[in-house]
Amino acid sequence: MFKNRPEVILMVYGKGGHAAQMTRFIQGAPEELKSTPFIALSDVKIKDKNFIRQFYCIEARDKFSYMKNIFIFILHFFWSLIQITRILMNYRVVSMISTGPGIAVVPALICRMLGVKVIYFESWSRIFTPSIAGKIMYRVANLFFIQHESLQKYYPKSRFFGRL
Amino acid sequence: MKIFVTVGHTHYNALFKAVDEQLSPNKYQIVNQISEGTYIPSNHQYFKYSTQVKDEVVKADLVITHAGAGSVFDLLEMSKPTLIVPNFDRIDNHQKDLADFVIKNNYACVCNDLAQLEKYVLDSVNNSFNPYNKSNFSGYDKILEVIKQT
What we know:
The complex is a heterodimer.
Chain A (H helix, E strand, L loop, with lengths): L6 E7 L3 H12 L2 H4 L3 E5 L8 E6 L12 H22 L1 E9 L4 H9 L3 E5 L10 H9 L2 E4 L12 E2 L4
Parallel strand pairs in A: 1-2, 1-4, 2-3, 4-5, 5-6, 6-7
Helix pairs in contact in A: 4-5
Chain B lengths: L1 E5 L6 H10 L6 E5 L11 E3 L5 H7 L2 E5 L2 H9 L4 E4 L8 H12 L3 E2 L6 H10 L13 H9 L2
Parallel strand pairs in B: 1-2, 1-4, 2-3, 4-5, 5-6
């Protein structure tokens, strides 16, 4: 059943600024990268012709309440595990690219276990302090971009190539 | 003065309440994009979401925004007069980083006290700020190189 799976690049992002960064990433991407179709694992759709399918997943935590977070995290954990399994059964993922946040962690771990390259962008709203998702993804990703040079001291092996 | 108030995809009742109570419809023509917020402005126009956000931004003399990076960077890149109000309703202080960045570089006015909103509105249009110049992301070749590595 795993034969003849179409090649895709998996884009993982949360709503709001993370989706905005992904939109900008795709707008600036060269044809060579876009020659492989994209699929999304996200809580919001991006309208772009390069996407052939979206898999829905809720975010890892709620931004307004600590109380809800334990429940949301457990739900997110199993949901993302199911979705990444479905994705990997149906597609040959050549790379996972994420603009965060926590929605990226579970899929990235699974991808790395299977030898899929993971590329992560620390959020552009992080200038003086690293994010929780960033600190985890710094250890998981093959390539880790920061968007403000001031973060280099927290992420010594990160790369700075300008801002999305 | 035409003002557009936007909070992207989040909610920020305290901001809309302050706008509604402190900025008189006699002096300001205001459109609020309240998103998921539950505070309904009574003195000014509002909508939840719209594809017209860009048009409202263009029409406005001043945009009041939460410190969400998507909104803030878009506005700075457009060189739009902007007043940034970090969302203190949120449990993370994620918006503080961006607000500090804007203050440090004097890119726009940042309001840290909603009780004095009108003063900040006037500062935003009367003071001068530094232009925001960014270096565009240029790491695509690095990404292709990593993807091709086996």
